[in-house]
Amino acid sequence: MKKEDIEAIVALLSTPKKIAIIPHRSPDGDAMGSTLALYHFLLKCNHQPIVIAPNEFPDFLAWMPGSEHVLIYENDRVNTTKILQESEVIFTLDFNALHRTGEMEKVLSQLTAPFIMIDHHQSPDHYALYTYSDTQFGSTCEMIYNFISFLDKKDFIDKTIATCIYTGILTDSGSFRFPKTTGATHRIVADLIDLGVNNSEIPALLFDNNSYHSLQLLGRALQNMVVYPEYKTAFISLSQKELDEFHYVKGDTEGIVNYGLSIKGIDFAAIFIEHRDENIIKISFRSQGDFDVNQLAREHFSGGGHINAAGGKSTLSLEATVAKFKQIITQIKI
Q1: How far is CA 14 from CA 8, 47, 184, in A?
Q2: What is the largest CA-CA distance in the chain?
Q3: Burial 145-184 (b: 16+ CB within 10 A, else e)
Q4: Which residues on adjacent β-strands are paired with residue 117?
């Protein structure tokens, strides 16, 4: 981050402010971890922070400290809009384009307060006055740790803040397996553990709280998997009918896309999930090696993300979306 930007932010935050903190729509562990870590940090700095998520976050993140104070835009548009309009500073974390907030984009795009973006995705938009954007990092939470250090307030990081940061690093690094997990990442994690983070309890809270129905849904998803060895590709589709059959709740399909990559010889995996309430097919892509799913998502499915992990959407039917995908993979080199 530029030295002059850090100095300007220090000056901006030198007096108590009303501050809104925004994650992307359908926030994951990194989005919730980074926003809640910043929330607790700003509280310690005597500010008045509020986290406003575009929509509900998954139940498996509800244990995170401060999650009970998160406001949901879709549940109370009038009140949250008023709070946003009265905010003196807006932090946007773990996304770099306002459309990633869904309906909130209309409100955010009209605000006059200064925006501060902290994010690790590719091709950031230019809506923020101050931007800390770096694709070298595997998580926004790792960047939040650095951001607090840039402000010369590393000693403000306590067990609560450390727990939030650790959660985001753990989830976005694939439990420290993904390529962007560096020595610096592990040194930060070591510091967080020294601050009291329970590194054996958190993975259990995140990954071992499956319901019977979510496991049944996983079984159906694996039954639906289609493998194209000649294209090094595997994909899964789930219809709204199947989601309803297994009593789907937000978070139940988290991580299912990764099962395709566990197959020997497969370097590209996708999952297509029908959501009739939104009239879209939600898509997640994962890859191994040099195949860029961010580019594919941007070009064909109104999405984006990272080289090896991206998301998108389709307004076609589930069948038509899958057919489009099949056509695409026959024309690209994986």
Answers
A1: 10, 10, 29
A2: 60
A3: bbbbebeeeeebbeebbbbbbbbbbbbbbbeeeeebbeee
A4: 92, 131
User: pLDDT tier at 270 (50, 70, 90 boundaries)?
Assistant: very high
Cα dihedral value 243, 248, 254, 255, nearest 10: -50
Query: DSSP letter at 184?
Result: H
pLDDT tens string 67-104: 999 999 999 999 999 999 999 999 999 999 999 999 99
The full set of domains in the chain, from first to last, is 3-206 (3.90.1640.10), 212-329 (3.10.310.30)
Q: Give Cα 300 to chain centroid, integer Å.
A: 21
| Contact present, 278 and 318 (Cβ < 8 Å) | no
Instruction: Quick: pLDDT tens for 221-250.
Output: 999 999 999 999 999 999 999 999 999 998
pLDDT at 334: 86
Given a contact cutoff of 8 angstroms between Cβ atoms, the answer to whether 168 and 139 are in contact is yes
Residue 318 identity (one-letter amino acid): L
> 59 vs 49, 96, 207, 208, CA distance in Å?
23, 25, 12, 12
Q: Whole-model pTM? A: 0.89
pLDDT for residue 306: 86
10 Å Cβ neighbour count for 103? 12
**End-to-end alpha-carbon separation of the chain, Å?**
34
